[in-house]
Amino acid sequence: VSDPCLMPKVIRNCRARLPRFYFDNQKGKCKKFYYGGCGGNENRFDSKSECKKTCMKRMSCLMVFAHKAGQ
Fold first, then answer.
1. Domain range for residue 52?
2. 30 in helix, strand or coil?
3. How far is 43 from 59, CA to CA, in rounded Å?
4. Structural domain tally of the chain?
5. What sign has the CA pseudo-torsion 51, 53, 57, 58?
């Protein structure tokens, strides 16, 4: 999966505790988590607004496309 919005949240056991946001594609919203500072994937955003800007628009387009394909 190359779309960061479809990637799962990844938490590693590193020592940092940096507030970040990830897109929960099951719930269709951005959620806060604490990033340990190492590893992970691209589904990690510095702010909720960055997460929303990247993923919410993309997900709404996919949902419209899926709805039209199912008609």
1. 4-69
2. strand
3. 14
4. 1
5. negative
